[in-house]
Specification:
Layout (H helix, E strand, L loop, with lengths): L2 E4 L3 E3 L34 H7 L5 E6 L5 E7 L6 E4 L10 H5 L5 E4 L15 H15 L4 E6 L1 H13 L3 E7 L8 H8 L1 H15 L1 H12 L7 H9 L5 H16 L15 E6 L9 H8 L4 E5 L6 H4 L1 H11 L14 E4 L1
Parallel strand pairs: 5-6, 5-7, 7-8, 8-9, 9-10, 10-11
Antiparallel strand pairs: 1-2, 1-3, 3-4, 4-6
Helix pairs in contact: 3-4, 5-6, 5-9
Length: about 350
């Protein structure tokens, strides 16, 4: 029996409506399978959001997949079509809390397999990561959603768009991997230096100075990590290292796959928006050309002076961008327009 384990309670998926959904306090099934938690005092940008959003860190939960593995999540209540948001490597669902705070829509963030509080992936393939997330959404009864993915989560979101098709009303990719070889991932995967780095990764990430230095040099174009993020990385340095290595292997495999997005179209015809930082060192903006070949309807935006982590480097600008790209509207399923590009 599939079930969802909340941090404060366990709710059986049968016979609760719909299958796997958390219930409202009054016992009714929530719209789109997302629970509404009782309102309590929380810091929010506006009084309206403060009255509705509850805990600023979201309500944690765990979905049990069919094979017994656990997939952790956080969700924030709201109205309308949910945002499903997928994080990048070394991050977790909590990294989306500022995005969740900026919208009135329900927001559902998952810890990707092997990262955060989630169990390891069944296989080190991005398609399997996507299958796990999509299975969790089906257990929760989420029938339609806007899909947002950053970096590793962007590749998983692209894979999910093929599995979800019309259930994903739009797709927003923030500097996604999976559309070409990522030099840093290749270095960690196969070289002698990379093997040494993998062995020393837990020690490096458990030290606040080296962890912050790696983040600033490789990810954020010199911006220091948010204290919450740095603290999570340090606390989980040893426990998440196996999941980070598995994810790195999946990124490398995607870049080498002859049947992957590097060589073919993504079978998704809905609206697509792609955001990149012109100073992204980790996943260079040159990868955007291949993304637009795989998703010719995509609208590409490049922000000058930004690295790989818009949630940290341009949080308010990112919130406005996502409010526009995830807006629900009728989709043009036929004759998608040519890729568009804008630079800001």
């Amino acid at each position: 029996m599939a079930s969802i384990r909340d941090e404060r309670r366990v709710v059986s998926a049968v016979p609760a409506p719909p299958s796997g959904a958390l219930s409202d306090p009054d016992g009714r099934a929530p719209r789109n399978g997302l629970a509404r938690s009782p309102t309590r005092e929380a810091r929010r940008p506006t009084q309206r959001q403060q009255s509705r959003r509850g805990d600023p860190d979201g309500q944690p939960g765990v979905v049990e997949l069919s094979d017994g593995r656990l997939l952790a999540s956080r969700h924030w209540p709201g109205t309308g079509v949910p945002l499903v948001v997928l994080h990048g490597l070394f991050d977790c669902s909590l990294g989306w809390r500022h995005v969740a705070a900026a919208t009135d829509r329900p927001c559902l963030a998952y810890d990707l397999p092997g990262l955060g509080r989630s169990g390891m992936p069944a296989k080190n393939r991005l398609a399997d990561y996507a299958h796990d997330i999509f299975s969790a959404l089906e257990i929760l009864g989420v029938d339609s959603f806007s899909l947002v993915g950053h970096s590793l989560g962007g590749a998983v979101a692209a894979e999910m768009s093929e599995q979800a098709r019309e259930r994903a009303v739009n797709l927003t990719l923030l500097a996604p991997v999976g559309f070409g070889a990522v030099p840093f991932a290749e270095l960690l995967h196969g070289s002698r230096v990379g093997r040494l780095v993998r062995l020393g990764m837990p020690l490096a990430l458990s030290n606040p100075f080296t962890a912050a230095g790696i983040y600033m040099a490789v990810v954020s174009h010199g911006h220091p990590p948010e204290p919450h993020l740095l603290g999570r990385v340090i606390r989980r340095a040893f426990s998440t290292a196996p999941g980070a290595i598995a994810a790195n292997d999946a990124i490398v495999a995607a870049g080498r796959d002859p049947q992957g997005f590097v060589h073919r179209r993504v079978r998704y015809d809905g609206p697509v928006s792609v955001l990149w930082g012109a100073s992204d060192f980790l996943v260079p903006a040159s990868h955007a050309d291949r993304v637009c070949e795989a998703l010719p309807q995509a609208k590409l935006t490049v922000w000058d002076g930004m690295g790989h982590h818009p949630q940290r480097e341009r949080p308010q600008q990112l919130n406005r961008y996502l409010a526009a790209t995830t807006r629900t509207q009728a989709r043009a399923w036929r004759q998608p327009p040519a890729a568009q590009r804008s630079v800001a």
